[in-house]
Each structure stands twice: as C-alpha cells, then as structure tokens.
Amino acid sequence: MNSERNGILGVSGLQAMNTLRTTPVEFAPLSQEFARDPYPIYAALRGQPQLQYFAAYDMWLVPWHKDVSTILSNPDMVRSLDHQIPAEEIAARQVKDNWHDMPYHSRFVQFSMLDSDGATHDRLRSLIATYFGPSAIHRIEASVRAFVDQQLGELADANRIEFVEDFAAHIPGRAIGALMGVPAEDCALLRAWSERIVQFFDIDRSDEKKELAERTTRDFYLYLKQLESERRRQPADDLLSRLVGLQDRGLLTEDEFISTCMLIVMAGHGSTLDVLASGLHTLLRFPGEMNRLRADPGLMGTAVQEMFRFESPLPFFHRYARQDASVHGQEFRCGTRFGLLYGSANRDPTIFAEPDTFDVARRPNRHKAFGGGAHFCLGNHLARLNMDIVFTSLLQRFETIDLVSDPEYKRGLSVRGPKTLEISCSIG
Length: 428
Ligand code: HEM
Fold this sequence. Notes:
CATH 1.10.630.10, six-stranded mixed beta sheet, three-stranded antiparallel beta sheet
C-alpha cells in the first residue's frame, strides 16, 4: 500500500522551519541489512534529537511512540492531500508516476477508504464497520478453525514443512473469503490477485509489474461484478450481500463497492501471511516463551498481541500535515509528509519495558501495529482471530517444532515478514 524507492537521508530546508544540525542516521530501508534486522536502525533514529528527513520518499521519519500516537489522533494529519490540490495537478502527478494508462488500477486501487479522509472516509468506514466487529467475526470462527485443522491435518505426516507456502499462505484468503462470502473454491484466487496488485507498489517497479497490476485489477473487478449480480439475485448472510444492499439503497457507489472489496482483500492478505510466519519464527527464537504458552494456553490473547508488537507486519504508513504543525518540538509547514515508523514505535523503551524481549504475557501492550485514530485497522479482530486459531491448533497438534534454518526477511520499509520458514515438527 506504499511505494518504495531507494535513497539516503538528508535535510530539507523547505519544510522544516527550525531544523537542528544533527548527524543523520544511515537509513537504507531497501538494504539486506535492514531486512535482516531493522531494529538497531530504528533505535538510532529514536536516539536523534530531531526528526530525520528521508529524501528518497520526501518525508520526515517519526520513530517515537509518543509522536506517532499524537499524529495518528490529529485530524489535521491526513492520508491524502488530494482534496486540497487542483485536479490538473493530481492528473500531472499521475502522468509523472505512470498511473495515467492504468484506468482500472487508478479507479479502484488508488482511491479507497484508506486513502480518503474526513467525511468521505468516515461515511465509507461507518457503512461497513459493524461487519468487522467481534460478533460479526465470531460468525466465521468455526469455519476458519475447521479449515486450519484440515490444512494442518494434511501436513501431519510431513516432519519438515516450509511453513509459508505449505501452510500460512492458504489461511488469509480463506478467512477473508469466508467473511466476504467468496466461494471456498475461489479463495486461492484472492491471494494471487492481492499479490499481483500489491507488487506494483513494490520496491522494484517495472513496466511488467505495472501491466500485471492493471490486468489483475481488471480481472478482479470482473469477478466482483459477477459475484455482485449473483448476490443481487440471491442474497446471502455475508459481507458482499450487505455491500450490494448498500449500493442498491444509494449509500455506496459502484466504484466505492469495488474499491472497498479490493481494499479488504489487499489490506488483509499479505499482512496476515507475514505475521503468521514472523509470529512462529519469533516463538522459535524464544523457546522459553513457546513453552510458557504451551503450559498456559490462556496466554494466547496477549501472546498474539505481542507477536504484532514484536514484528509488526506493516511497519510504516504516511500522513500529510494539512496545517502547519509541530512534531517533537520541531515546526513543519502544511503539506509536509511524515513517515510513521510503527515498527520503531513498537520497540520504544519509553513505552515498553525491555522492548527487544518477546514476552507472551506482556500487558499492557499499547502497540501501534494496527495504527490508530480514524484509520485504525478495520480488520484487527479478524487478524487476531486468525492468529489465535492458528497458534492454538499448531501448539496442540505438534509436540515439537524446530527451526531448520534461519529465514531471510522480505526487503522494504512497508513490509516485514519471512520469505520462507523451514521447520521440522513432530506429533506427540
Ligand atoms: C494481519 C495483520 C494486519 C495488520 C498489521 C494491519 C494493519 C493495519 C494498519 C496499520 C492500518 C492503518 C493504516 C494507516 O495507519 O494509515 C490498517 C488499515 C486497514 N486494515 Fe488492516 N491490518 C491487518 C489485517 C487486516 C485484515 C485481515 C483486514 C480485513 C480483512 C484489514 C483491513 C483494513 C482496512 C479496511 C483498513 C483501512 C481502515 C481505514 O482506512 O479506516 N486489515 N491495517
């Protein structure tokens, strides 16, 4: 959901009004070193007296929990400045960024609830918020549990598993599909579509990736149109039917219907996959905590929250200041872009005792993995339910789980998760 380019830290005289001269931290979020272990770099950023400017993304990095929280709850810190910019300027930007020949992508992916603010955002969000609440999510719990058990059952004879491909990759599409009402046999498509569309935001952008993202958005759109007419003919007890109903009552436009469905799939898929794998990797790195959780399954709720804190799968999002603003005692002009480093905020020692220690019983745990304020993750109940079900079943089914080799983590500032995770396991 964010684009990434390589670059270096510098200091912009244009947007900060009273910048101190500091030694910039070397910040290379696309490097292998950052992928391996970003936390020393986050700590160095937190150790600076002021915000650092990251020229490659034209944004100021906010690494402290307190300032991230303050920005998230400030209505003048927004996701998009589009409503303040003349339409021609937006069009010119799209041409510059090669968006202009991506009609489906720009119509349904670039503009969504996540990238709107104020009244438009609040209207779109309030129309669907109840369908993501605990009781709505509870309705799909049994079907997700049954699917997880079935997937684990298929692995029961294998004593070596590549956890990402063999298991975790099947879970998010099925859970999101169950909530939306996508037929079970089509849920695997959600993964492929979401990955192909999201890869366009990737670090290594290319014309091929752009074409693939555009083609896939069109396929996804046509598929959703087909489901839409099926649900209109024959409504069911699912999110798609409710969204169709909202559309028929004139509360949601056609484009809003499609972009909301796509957002739900794209926001929920990669993030869930990554935290399933990083969560297991973390338990394997802290075997004492895994044993503690085995001995006391009542800790699962706090353990899952700690997995989100410890390796936040979406560690960075941006905000723009739509008024002149003060952050960490520094003044910034209207239009300044800030990079909120959730992954760093979640290791801030002023908030978390021993932040680099994984503690399955940590409480309170005011992590920022789901953001905060107006855009606080709508899917957080579903995300936590998936984790709860998977880790409960995994620990029940396998008496031992061991790491075969240290995994490589994905490169980039916007994502955090192992590419693969080779484990060996045994049944009791
Ligand atoms: C599994 C881990 C997940 C993480 C770490 C996560 C994290 C986040 C974060 C940080 C935001 C706010 C972005 C910002 O601050 O600008 C967000 C928004 C959102 N998330 Fe999640 N998410 C996860 C799973 C899900 C799932 C499973 C769904 C739905 C199926 C979902 C749907 C959404 C939606 C619709 C928004 C936009 C909310 C708005 O703009 O008001 N997320 N998520």
